[in-house]
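Support reply, case 0932

Customer input (verbatim):
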Amino acid sequence: MTNKMATLDGVAQQKPCTNNVPPAPEVVNISPLRKLRLANELPAAKIVGSVQRMYPGFDKYLLSKAERPDTYGIELRTDAMIIEKHA
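Our regenerated output:
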């Protein structure tokens, strides 16, 4: 299967590409958790480990969602954020 199509004058032309993924929008509202992690260059594993001491069910997937509260509606509790500042 080719991506060329014939025209009336016999010259083949390229079909327009229709499977482009639009670029991600710029991040305007960075969550305090993500800002803290990036500013202190903390690896995600260290944050997960420190929060898991208080909340054993916390994992890397919840960290990812907590860093994007506008998308998932999840925020880290204040007491867990205090742990992060000392991680």
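We compared this against your earlier run and they match. Two observations from our side: Helices lie at 32-39, 44-54, 60-66, 69-72, 78-85. The two ends are 55 Å apart (CA to CA). Please reopen the case if you see a mismatch on your end.
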